[in-house]
Amino acid sequence: MKDLENIDKTFVGVKDIVSSGLCSRNTLFDLMREDPTFPKGKKVGGKPNSPTKWWLQDIIEWLRRAR
User: Fold this and answer.
1) What are the backbone dihedrals phi and psi of residue 40, each rounded to the nearest 5 degrees, phi first?
2) Which is the most buried residue in 22, 39, 41, 44, by most CB within 10 A?
3) Residue 41 pLDDT > 70, yes or no?
4) How would you write 6-19 as a 3-class SS string?
């Protein structure tokens, strides 16, 4: 992960979240589909199959609320 000083400017993708150990790929997709409180990702690119990314700060705040 990037320097924590810039956490509010860090955009993370599926691989970043999975490699950090927060959850598995399948769990992440389940959360995106089933948990309305999970942060909405942003499509990076103009195509429907473009990757989804999240602001790291949004993921951290969601984790704090989910506990």
Assistant:
1) -80, 130
2) 41
3) yes
4) HHHHCEEEHHHHHH
